[in-house]
Design goal:
The complex is a heterodimer of chains A (601) and B (347). With 601 residues, chain A is an alpha/beta fold. Chain A is 38% helix and 19% strand. Chain A folds into four domains: 209 residues, Pyruvate-ferredoxin Oxidoreductase, domain 3 (3-Layer(aba) Sandwich), CATH 3.40.920; 183 residues, Rossmann fold; 73 residues, no CATH class; 98 residues, Rossmann fold. In chain A, the strands form six sheets. In chain A, strands 12, 13, 14, 15, 16, 17, 18 and 24 form an eight-stranded mixed β-sheet that branches. In chain A, strand 15 and strand 16 form a beta hairpin. Chain B is α/β, with parallel strands linked by helices and 347 residues long. Chain B has a single domain, classed as Thiamin diphosphate (ThDP)-binding fold, Pyr/PP domains (Rossmann fold). Chain B is built from twelve helices and 13 strands. In chain B, the strands form three sheets. Chain B has an eight-stranded mixed β-sheet with strand order 2-1-3-4-8-7-13-9, sandwiched between helices. In chain B, helix 1 crosses helix 7, helix 4 crosses helix 5 and helix 6 runs antiparallel to helix 9. The longest helix of chain B is centred in the N-terminal third of the chain and has 15 residues. The chains are: A alpha/beta (601), B alpha/beta (347). Chains A and B meet through strand 11, helix 7, strand 13, helix 9 and helix 11 of A and strand 2, helix 3, helix 5, helix 11 and helix 12 of B.
Chain lengths: 601, 347
């Protein structure tokens, strides 16, 4: 996750603090499996509904029940959404971590906590609000086994009172969250919220400086996670064969898609599905099915994370070499190996760009927002079919699983690009075809789909050496010719990937390059550099690999370039090293390397 | 006086195609390889039943057997994939176009070793598909190592004895959900033809394990997959006959001797008992027969099991009758109002 250290605007003192409005972060520390997710989403949405920009980051364990989890809501009147390192307002519900959570706070922070934890004894420079949660939950939730879940809604009421969050917005967010079908559960939880609010109103004298005030910065916006956004993109891209194997953090991408497909893609006349979703036995099978379907002409897609990408390596090489369209989402998490499955990273860049043995290269699309998860899903299918090759969409856990504010998605204006597919009529006119012949100079041959009713339609697809007519060959000229054409195709594709977004500052000598979710901390850091140190910077946000000419131009216009990415080994910078000349490479610095040297490593 | 010589009319099948339309490229497998005989039977069966070749898709993995789809049905699309992963490729392709007739030719290395997982999950899904195992108990393309279907005690050319028990692909198929299961021998023309034709008519997953001797690496004294060994030990489970749906010839056999199974397309499989009391709709009978034959050192061939009533994978998924691959944009991209509505929900 791109995390930002925000220097406090004014030094804090225990006695008097300037009011802090719409610019602080709330952290809720709970135990996973305790149902805190609903309470946290409601809190975040209520602030959003008050027109204040918010972001929510869930830091959760790879576990179902009983381990610590932290949810951080940042409200920022400036619209910053990176995870802020400093916590201003803590809701300490987890006895296991409460002590450490409190000790880590900066002085002047506020703490709502479960009374028996007696956290107020730990420090004297914080604002403490003890709440007897167990006493409060009894009367509002007669059913004992539900109390563990409902208990969390009490802190929504408490926090609403202390931070002046409108209870009407809490009510609206809560009932939206539960939906019409679960109105009874919503009522029960609403009772708990109210109990919390009433208790706080009766008990607390506000001493901390934090407050939410209505703004108008979220009008028209939506809240969605990147996985759901990508899922919607696939549904509107006309995906027809969807294959998956569950893996954190990508599972919810296909789960969301299943939900949308059931609603939006059942033929009203026949009652039949215009799609097939299959949970495969593993990622090997998932990518195999995707390639089989792509070969037969379907828009096919799978979604996975790093370990799945590793398993798919052999098949992806086949997709590259036999030239079969496929769309693969990699919702990246921390590796290597099993790594930290519930933490975000951008660590699959090199391994995915060059996935498989032999000479292989694959286009990567790099969304940074839900809007781009939606649009790039659609672009990925078009690219895959146009260039007859696997295309990867590289998101990450932060983007995929956290809730983000976003502009509503725009309906696609371009028709689907199904690529060069010959029909029986085309074959009749042409009298035949050669599958891998580069007729148009773009490196892309024409294909036919199985089931095309024409005696000239068939060809034989193979991962072994083949010539233009798709016949088996071990001849070196055929091999070299084919590999050169594939390289040429990849070069042509360069002009069709989403170009970077460039913010050129004529006063700047240094430039930043970032991509994906690193964007948010990068943007905020640039503002900090300017306001606190007077340093002007330019910025280029990559949106795809292969690189487009804008990147090299950007490097050449600046004295020094810092590449920001969330991995150890400077992977994106590594891909640049493979392509650029020594003089250009010499200007590149990795932020991770800079940080390492600052730590004396 | 001059006479015009008119060539004799070419023989064609019921859709007007000659047998040449069902052939493939020239085989590059060894002379006498059992796989070539299987390719011949496939060519004959598809020709005789009048299957439209461009409605067929062929699949294979890696190995000698997986080369064979190049040698039959040259007018059908073919996909030679990666080792052991043919089932997933075939599943994807069949999902994309359920109107295809899918046929896979693959080996015992693909099926029982590197691709065992994919094979078992294919069985479980009852995909409408013909899965042919060209089974020789040996890795031919890498020059003669044992595969996982090699029998205990079977000997390699080098003298190495196999001391691990084999997987019986038919027993696996029965247990994991295939709905037509049969074993044959590449040298038994009539039986293999009948089994293949039944598989073509079957609307579910067919598994056909064809013992197909490797003349180069596994046809010697001491091998249990050699021609001579199979000929000596081939034990027929039943006598079978296939009557295509368009054929109105009725064969009269006294009731009680023959069990007739009506296939999805109206064709009939006629199964005549041989000696033992055997019900081809009973998995239990099938497993018992395979087990007993194994203990006696027999290679049991024939139709083990047929179930025409189980829903196949396409039915379970409730997918459109038309190929998903070519549905028009209007069917696969929901209209603007749908997106607007979805956005409204998220505000």
């Amino acid at each position: 996750m791109s995390t930002i250290e925000v220097s406090p605007a004014s030094p804090r003192s225990g006695e008097f603090q300037q009011p802090v409005v719409n610019d602080f972060s709330i952290q809720v520390a709970t135990i996973n499996g305790s149902g805190s997710q609903t309470a946290n989403s409601v809190l975040m949405r209520a602030i959003f509904q008050m027109g204040v920009p918010v972001s929510g980051k869930n830091m959760f364990p790879s576990n179902i029940q009983g381990l610590p989890t932290w949810f951080t809501i940042r409200s920022s009147k400036y619209g910053y959404t990176a995870r802020k390192k400093e916590i201003d307002f803590l809701v300490a519900m987890n006895p296991e971590t409460a002590r450490e959570d409190v000790m880590k706070l900066d002085r002047g922070a506020a703490v709502v906590y479960d009374e028996p934890l007696k956290l107020d004894a730990l420090r004297s420079d914080l604002h403490f609000y003890p709440v007897p949660f167990d006493k409060l939950v009894g009367p509002v939730c007669p059913e004992a086994k539900l109390r563990k879940l409902v208990r969390n809604m009490i802190y929504d009421g408490i926090v609403a009172y202390i931070l002046s969050i409108d209870m009407e917005e809490i009510h609206r967010a809560l009932f939206k969250q539960f939906g019409k079908k679960k109105a009874k559960a919503a009522e029960l939880n609403w009772g708990a919220c109210q109990a919390g609010f009433d208790y706080a109103a009766k008990t607390f004298k506000k001493s901390d400086p934090y407050r939410v005030e209505r703004m108008n910065a979220t009008a028209g916006k939506i809240i969605i996670d990147g996985n759901a956004a990508a899922a919607l993109g696939c549904v509107f891209a006309g995906a027809t064969v969807v294959i998956w194997y569950p893996i954190t953090p990508s599972s919810s991408l296909v789960e969301s898609m299943i939900g949308y497909l059931k609603r939006f893609r059942i033929d009203k006349d026949t009652g039949k599905a215009t799609y097939a979703v299959v949970q495969a036995e593993d990622e090997l099978s998932a990518i195999g099915m995707v390639l089989g379907a792509g070969w037969a002409g379907a828009r096919s897609v799978t979604s996975t994370a790093g370990p799945g990408i590793s398993l798919m390596a052999e098949f992806v090489g086949l997709g590259y070499y036999a030239e079969i369209p496929a769309v693969i989402f990699d919702v990246q998490r921390v590796g290597p190996s099993t790594g930290l499955p519930t933490r975000t990273a951008q660590g699959d860049i090199i391994s995915t760009a060059l996935l498989s043995h032999g000479d292989t290269k694959h286009p990567l699309l790099l969304p940074c927002s839900p809007e781009e998860c939606f649009t790039m899903a659609i672009e990925a299918f078009d690219l895959a079919e146009q260039f007859q090759t696997p295309v990867f969409v590289m998101t990450d856990l932060d983007l995929g699983m956290n809730n983000w504010m976003a502009e509503p998605f725009e309906y696609p204006t371009k028709p689907l690009n199904r690529g060069k597919v010959l029909t029986a009529e085309d074959l009749e006119r042409l009298g035949g075809f050669a599958r891998y012949k580069d007729l148009d100079g773009d490196g892309v041959g024409y294909r036919t789909l199985p089931g095309t009713h024409h005696p000239q339609a068939a060809y034989f697809t193979r991962g072994s050496g083949h010539n233009e007519k798709a016949q088996y060959t071990e001849r070196e000229d055929d091999y070299v010719h084919n590999m050169d054409r594939l390289a040429h195709k990849f070069n042509v594709l360069r002009a069709h990937v989403p170009p970077p977004v460039v913010d050129d500052n004529p006063k700047a000598e240094i430039g930043f390059v970032a991509f994906g979710t690193s964007h948010y901390a990068a943007q905020e850091s640039r503002d900090q550099l300017k306001s606190e140190f007077g340093i002007e910077t330019s910025y280029l946000r990559l949106r795809a690999y292969p690189f487009t000419p804008e990147l090299l131009d950007f490097i050449r216009r600046h004295k020094r370039i810092y590449v920001i990415e969330q991995n150890r080994d400077e992977q994106m910078l590594g891909l640049m090293r493979l392509e650029f000349d020594a003089g250009d490479i010499a200007k590149l610095r990795s932020i991770t390397a800079v940080c390492r040297s600052m730590r004396g490593l | 006086m001059s006479t015009t010589l008119t060539p004799p009319p070419k023989k064609v099948n019921r859709i007007g195609l000659e047998i040449a339309n069902y052939k493939g490229a020239k085989t590059t497998l060894c002379a006498g390889c059992g796989h070539n005989a299987i390719s011949e039977r496939i060519i004959e069966c598809f020709y005789e039943l009048g299957v439209q070749p461009w409605n067929v898709a062929k699949f294979s993995g890696i190995g000698c057997s997986s080369k064979s789809p190049a040698y039959f049905l040259g007018l059908s699309h073919g996909f030679n994939g990666v080792h052991g992963r043919m089932p997933s490729i075939a599943t994807g392709a069949m999902l994309a176009n359920r109107t295809l007739l899918g046929v896979g030719a693959t080996g015992d290395g693909d099926t029982a070793s590197i691709g065992l997982g994919q094979f078992m999950h294919l069985l479980r899904r009852n995909l409408p598909f013909i899965y042919i195992i060209e089974d020789n108990g040996v890795y031919g393309l890498t020059k003669g190592q044992f595969s996982a279907t090699a029998d205990m005690g079977s000997k390699l050319k080098t003298g190495v004895i196999n001391d691990l028990p084999p997987f019986d692909c038919c027993a696996l198929a029965l247990q994991c959900g295939a709905t037509f299961v049969a074993r044959s021998f590449s040298g038994d023309k009539k039986q293999l033809q009948t089994i293949l034709k039944t598989a073509i008519a079957h609307n579910g997953l067919s598994v056909i394990d064809v013992i197909s001797p490797c003349t180069t690496f596994n046809d010697h004294e001491g091998s249990t997959k050699s021609y001579s060994y199979i000929k000596e030990h081939d034990e027929l489970l039943n006598e079978i006959d296939f009557v295509p749906f368009y054929d109105d010839i009725s064969v009269e056999i006294a009731e009680g001797e023959v069990k007739e199974v009506e296939m999805h397309d109206g064709s009939k499989l006629r199964i005549k008992k041989l000696g033992r009391d055997y019900d081809p709709t009973s998995k239990f009978d099938a497993l018992k027969a395979i087990d007993e034959a194994g203990k006696k050192g027999e290679v049991l061939t024939g139709v083990f099991y047929v179930d025409t009533g189980k829903p196949n994978f396409m039915d379970l998924l409730n997918i459109d009758e038309a190929p998903l691959a070519t549905l028009p944009e209007s069917k696969i991209r929901p209209p603007r109002e749908v997106l607007d509505h979805a956005m409204e929900e998220l505000r």
